[in-house]
Amino acid sequence: MPTSFPPNRSTNHKDYQRVPRVVTAMARDVEHGVTGVPHSHERAQLLYATQGLMRVWTDNGMWILPPRRGLLIPPGVTHHWRALSKVTMRTVYIEPSVAARMGDSCRVIEVSPLLREMILALLNEPIEYPIPGRGEHLAMLILSELEAAETVPIAVPWPRDRRLIGICEAIMADPGSSRNIEQWADEVGASARTLIRLFPKETGLHYRQWVQQVHLAEAFGRLAEGQSVGGIAAALGYASPSAFTAMFRRVLGKTPQHYLTEWRGP
Q1: What pTM value is reported for the model?
Q2: What's the rounded Cα separation, in Å, for the pair 104 and 219?
Q3: How confident is the model over 178-224, as pLDDT tens digits?
Q4: Who contacts 258 (Cβ-Cβ below 8 Å, separation ≥6)?
């Protein structure tokens, strides 16, 4: 059942940046295919959806966010997003001096059931909730849960070198491609040695590690859509579901089946 919030609550992120409260929350529903224009906020942001799938970009990376995962974005970071399905967005904005305790780079976190319910509860309070009062208590509990939240190591760092950008865009468009670094070198007019050197310099990851992160991000999105592990493994070019599962578990500490069960649940 859809959650109802107080009438006339703003869906414009600009209305939440200078509210005299440490934590504020905004509710917005968007249709499949809607894209947010590049923008930044004065406050830190937890970009999160209770339902639906989003892809988020910054100048430095890309993330796919299924339900129960949110992206913590520091103040001032330019980003944009695209709804890969109908999305019920439930965003939290955090006063910069407080958000500094959560780090200075974007990261995906697990949104616990408790954190989810507290965000929804705060949305039923006025934007400028009374102090002291229930809203203030919810805000403090939200901060506590955010600081304790587990980081999910899924990020696709983005290069600035035009040759690498061409390669990375092609891989994103066809993540199951079996091309190796030598084949890409022939296509972009650079030596394999140059590309091998550029990948860690530009992204912090070696080529195969970068491709693996693309596979993880793509797999997360496909699992959230209910696709089978075998189908995902084949689409990403793995020899078998077990090979894909081994890679997934090695990086995330959990199997694809774990997330598939989670997202198929209520």
Answers
A1: 0.86
A2: 27
A3: 889 999 998 888 899 999 999 999 999 999 999 999 999 999 888 88
A4: none
